[in-house]
Amino acid sequence: MDLVQRRAFRTAVEACLGLFAAILCWVAVSWAFRPGQFPVLDELGNLGLFLDGSYHDIVHFVPTAVYNDRPVGWIFTRLMFDLFGFDYAREVACFLIIHFANCVMAFLVFRRLGVGMPLAFAGVALFGSLSTTAQTATYIGAALDVFCLFFLLASALALLSERRGSAVLSAILFFAALRSKEFAILAPPAFTVLVALRLPRMPLLRTAAAVARRLWLHYLIALLIGVRYASLYSAWRATLPPDDPYRTDLHLTTVVQSLAWYASAMFGAEHFRWQLFPWMLAIALLALLAWAVVRRSAGVAFGVCGFALFLQPVAFMPHQRSLFYVYAPQLFLILAICLLVETALAALRNGERLRWLAAVCIALAFMAWCVHIRRTSYFRDRVNFNVGIRRTCARSARAARALLPHMGPQTHVYVSHSEGTFAWMFLAQCAYLRVVNQQRTIYCVTEFPASQVLALYEADHGSKYLIDYNDDGSFTVEDRAGPPNTSNR
Question: Most buried pick, 133, 238, 305, 462, via CB within 10 A?
Fold first, then answer.
């Protein structure tokens, strides 16, 4: 086989790997298009933030709150609702465009940092196939995490460019990431490691000056926003009740345990319990970072820092851990893993063709694992759970349209249900009824036993409704003047 034929063969093999990776990423999220699904939880709750506001009210550059002030994600949420209403299928189709753009940019970042074509495809396939990714990329309520990663990757690509103005563009994209979700404020330290280790060896002061030329605007933005967050933090913390899950615990042990939880959650093992594992993981990450700095492996160091730093804001919240939070950080850990494999392959002394063949075999092993992930009961159970909740909410929405009239202000909806049943549609501050009636003051009572709900209903002398909620999302509306109306199941 001559040189031209070998190149053609290699191109064909890599194209097949790319196609396989794309198929794996699609299959992991295609369940979102199963029929009969409806927005749930924060997808409804976030809509209530904009009932009587405009886009101008959403857009602001300086944070007004230390938590949940994320105008980029809110603009997308509002725009999707204005375009599609409660049509989840069309909303998620638009949302997945951003997710797949993240996959493409991840591939480009991998390649720019030295990952070969086979392992770059495998790394993206792994990212796209994880259950944490599949759940986040199909949950429009997690738009904040997905958009933040989008702008972080775009900022990193701009930073890796040598074109004029690329550093300024990177800083602008970093600001967009920061206004998507707060964890992006720790991007400058990760970018510092990336830039510093890509520079040639030179005295420390010259290295610092070169880094400052590239990143001074990033640090200025982070400093200004960070000072604003610090000024708001004390007042925000004072408003939290002692049992609020968002209260922070500023201890090293909390951080180490949280990092271990999120690393395990990537692979469906968030309930894994081994007392030494969190500390072993922390030591391994520190050792890997030290090795990368000594070896000047910018990509590995950037990957380790990206994983650890981007989890820091949520790592201090031991009572509020979510699979959505690891969507962005996990990609950087996968980057570090792929580069470590490349480093190991580079040690092979038997020629470039053997190294490429070994990379293809490892990539295929990664992708075979991705297929396995998709077929595990862990993955299937979570898919079925999400689809089930969405279809339950769809039944409730149909019943609400058929049985509940227009509600005025200060209307109370009492939801009676059996023990162990979650009235999904009426959670998230009764957001669905608030949105369809354009009334912020509608309130749903859902958390009490059926007998207590009835007593509260009878004691209420205002505008009120009593709902008898069924497990499948259908419900009846109590009519004191006649027989109850029953929804179609």
Answer: 133
Q: Residue type for 300, please?
A: V
Q: What is the pLDDT of residues 469-489, one digit of tens each?
A: 888 888 888 754 333 444 444
Ramachandran region, residue 36 (left: φ > 0; alpha: ψ -120 to 50; beta: rest):
left
Topology given in CATH for the domain delimited by 406-486: Rossmann fold (3.40.50)
Predicted model pTM: 0.90
Ramachandran category for residue 231: left, alpha or beta (phi over 0 → left; psi -120 to 50 → alpha): alpha
Closest C-alpha among 366, 250, 259 to residue 306: 259
CA-to-CA dists, residue 67 to 242, 313, 328, 450, angstroms: 17, 11, 18, 35
Q: Do residues 363 and 17 lie in contact, with contact meaning Cβ atoms separated by under 8 Å?
A: yes
The two tokens of residue 487 are 């929804």
Domain boundaries, the chain: 3-375, 406-486
Quick one: average pLDDT of 87-113?
Answer: 95
Maximum Cα–Cα distance for the chain, whole Å? 89
- The predicted-structure confidence for 234-272, as pLDDT tens digits, reads as follows 777 777 777 777 777 778 888 898 899 999 888 887 777
